[in-house]
Structure formats: C-alpha cells, structure tokens
Design goal:
With 352 residues, this protein is an alpha/beta fold. 28% of the residues lie in helices and 26% in strands. The protein contains 9 helices and 17 strands. The strands form 3 sheets. Strands 1, 2, 5, 6, 13, 14, 15, 16 and 17 form a 9-stranded mixed β-sheet that branches. α7 packs parallel to α8.
Length: 352
C-alpha cells in the first residue's frame, strides 16, 4: 500500500507540473511585417528644341526690279531653292519659327506705303517642305494688301499645318514632346497691339501653355543695339511668363541678353528676305535653344547655340537663299554678336 501511495503521489505531482507548465508557456507572437522603404520617383524630364530665324519675305514689291527679285528666283528654281542650305538644320529640331513679313494672297488692294509685299500662295511650300512649323504674323507687313491678304495668309498656313500667331486674338498652342507650347506674336510698333503684350502672354498661360515663346517686332531699322523701349518690353514679357523673346524688324543683327534665366534675342536680322535684292548687311544668324522641363519646372540649363549665316549663298547680292557662314564671314559674325552681347552685359554665347 505504501508503494502505491508513493506512486499515486508522484503521478499527481507530474500532472500538476504539466498543468503549471501549460499555464506559464507563452503563445508564440506574430512576427511583424517587414517595413518597405518608400520609393522616391524622380520627376520625368521632357525636352523641346526650337529654332528661330529673322525676317522672311516671299514676294517682290511692285516697284522693285522683278528680274532681280524673289519672284524671279521662285520661277527659275522653285520654292525648294530658298531653304535648301538650311533645311537640314530645321529638320533637326522640334519646332522652327520664322518671322513671316508679308502676305500670301492673290486678293486685296496695295496699301499706300513705301514697300508692300504679296506673294503667290504656292510660296507657302517653301515653309512646309523645309520643316518650318510656325510663323509670326505680328509685323508691319501682315496686311500689305488689306485685311483680306492677312486672312488668306492664315488660310494657306493652316492648310499646310503651319502654326501662326498675331496679337491676343491669335495665340497658338501646340503639344510637342508632351510639352504644351504657347506661341505669342506682338507687333510692338503698332500702338494697339503693344497694349496686348501682357494679356496675350496671360492668354497662352490660361490655355495651358507650359512654355511661352514670344515673337516681337520692334526697334529701329539698321540699329545694331536695342533701345530702352525694347529692353523694357522684353523684361515685361518675361515678368509676365514668356520663356524666350525673339525680336525682329531692325533688319540687322543685335545682341543677346539673359533676364531672370530667360533669353532675349533682340534682333535676328533678315533671313530669306525678298524686300531687298542688295542689302548693305547680309549677316544673319539662326538661334536654337533646347528647353528641359523637370516635372513642371523649367530648368535653367543654358542649352543654347547660335549658327552664323548669310542671307544669300552668293557674294555681293541677295539670291534669297540663306546659308551657314564659313571662314572669315563666320568669324566676323561671331565677333559682331559677341561684341553686341557683351555691350548688353549678356551671356557667353555658344556658336555652332
């Protein structure tokens, strides 16, 4: 009996130990989920390369020599002739802009002025066949044969897919490489249109433009330096949201300035210019800038180059065929533009 009691006592103890152990054993804890490191995504980069030139006039004034004029060359060589030597340059970019100083029409009555230009509507092919995508019509020759000639010019540009801009009523918006570009044209020599400068830029912004290019007709003919009126207009435009200011009208080159990170081309001179068969100054230049947007921010990256050119491929007279300059002619244009720009306190220029 004593042995049985001892065995029973041991069994009770073992059971008790088991119960206690069961009560004190902790349940396994759930493991914590691993924490993921947040991925920081860089804002996407979007780029747009634009090319700008000076005055293009595809016509011969009725009082000028027809034999030596633009019309004669168009009849002799066809419209492909005029941009033959710069077509490759225009084809490299995303957007080429010219100042189209004149009209394309077979209607209208000549305005009472010293020079008036009306070209054959077929001359639009000189633009469309050479990768020119936009034309500024805000200048003092856009209605040389009345309002109907301006209406016709817009019509032929539209039919050939060429953007155009002129004042607040004609602001162009295009999406290129995922960037909404606004094109604004202002004839600052016109007392009415000059008052539209700020509103036209604001309109482009309201239409969704992320990048605003202003083409502006201003200044004094033959002057190689901008006047105070030009400077103030350029600063106002940039303060209002313009990202590039392209100037025309003086018919000669002027320097470059940079204001609040934005470039000002005060005058690009003539280009394929039918207004004069023997101008005293045949130097010109093509301006090119590549814009980069990081997200919504326009980067200040100075991706700019200038291509020195002559308005003619011939020496001593104008054959209306702009051509990249070489040798001593190129060196002279570089020296001129460098000096003009330094006089304005402008940026160091990069020449191609």
């Amino acid at each position: 009996m004593k042995g049985e009691k001892i065995l029973a006592f041991i069994a009770v103890c073992l059971i008790a130990i088991g119960v206690i152990g069961a009560k004190t054993t902790k349940a396994p804890q759930d493991k914590a989920e691993p924490t993921e490191t947040p991925v920081v995504t860089e804002a996407p980069l979007r780029t747009l390369t634009i090319t700008a030139t000076g005055d293009c006039t595809f016509a011969t004034d009725v009082n000028a020599s027809r034999e030596l004029g633009f019309v004669s060359y168009a009849e002799r060589y066809g419209t492909d002739w005029f941009f033959e030597n710069v077509r490759d340059i225009f084809s490299e970019d995303d957007l080429t802009i010219v100042n189209f100083e004149g009209t394309l029409s077979d209607r209208g009555t000549r305005e009472m002025k010293q020079f008036a230009f009306r070209g054959d509507p077929e001359y639009v092919n000189a633009l469309s066949d050479s990768s020119v995508e936009a034309a500024n019509l805000a200048n003092n020759h856009s209605m040389d044969y009345g309002e109907v000639s301006l209406i016709d010019t817009k019509k032929y540009l539209d039919e050939n897919g060429i953007l155009h801009c002129r004042g607040e009523e004609d602001v162009a918006i295009a999406e290129i490489n995922g960037i909404k570009v606004g094109l604004v044209g202002i004839n600052y020599l016109n007392d009415v249109m000059r008052t539209e400068l700020e509103d036209a830029i604001k309109k482009a912004k309201d239409m969704g433009a992320e990048l605003v290019i202003l083409s502006i007709h201003w200044g004094v003919e033959k002057a190689t330096a901008p006047n105070e009126d030009q400077k103030q207009a350029a600063y106002t435009a940039i303060d209002c949201g313009a990202d590039l200011v392209i100037g025309t009208h003086p018919h000669v080159l002027q320097g470059f300035e940079k204001y609040k990170g934005r470039y000002i081309c005060y005058s690009l001179g003539n280009f394929s210019f039918g207004g004069n068969n023997a101008p005293s100054d045949m130097d010109t230049a093509i301006f090119r800038q590549t814009f980069t947007l990081k997200g919504d921010e326009l980067l200040d990256d100075d991706n700019v180059e200038i291509i020195p050119c002559r308005i003619s491929s011939a020496d001593g007279y104008n054959n209306y065929q702009p051509t990249p300059a070489t040798g001593a002619k190129r060196d002279r244009i570089i020296d001129r533009l460098t000096t003009y720009t330094e006089n304005l306190g402008g940026p160091e220029l990069n020449f191609r």
